[in-house]
Amino acid sequence: LCMGFLAALWLPIVLSAVIVFVASSILHMVLKYHQSDCHQLANEDQTLAALRAAGVKPGYYHFPYCTHQDMKSPAAMGKFKQGPVGMMTVLPSGPPAMGKYLGSWFAYCLVIGFFTAYVTFHSIPQGANYLFVFRVAGAVAFMAYGIGPLASSIWKGQPWGMTIKEAFDGLIYGLLTGGTFGWLWLR
Prior knowledge:
Elements: H1 4-31, H2 44-53, E1 59-63, H3 74-82, E2 86-90, H4 98-121, H5 130-147, H6 150-156, H7 160-183
Antiparallel strand pairs: 1-2
């Protein structure tokens, strides 16, 4: 793996990550159009008490749970028909670890910047014009930020409205990343 692109493009990698990090904070904290993404459980106190009493530990759960061999059994089909059917992620108890989440998000932005730099560096010659760099870098970054959430609606039942908002966020992040790379491209 040739790391020449890293030495040449470290600034747009880091700066695009910072710009996306700030933009995501604005989208989530100021514009607040993601507030409708989550809903409160009916009878939340009783549901949480039942989960605690059952000893549910942090992890990812499918319910009703069954193996591939059990899927066609009448008992499993009865459970699916009766419902509810879902997937649930249980996090460790305690307040949200926002520092950890934000640090992980920034690291993710750096990783996307890294791969955007890799693809763009190996696709576009030095001295290329802004728009050419913008299109390639923006498309690569959009694929990372905006296309990935589609799988959550396809496989995990995430509401499509939420996924469309995440893809829209990804489009903004891709445009910002493409703009940063176009602005700071090798001359």
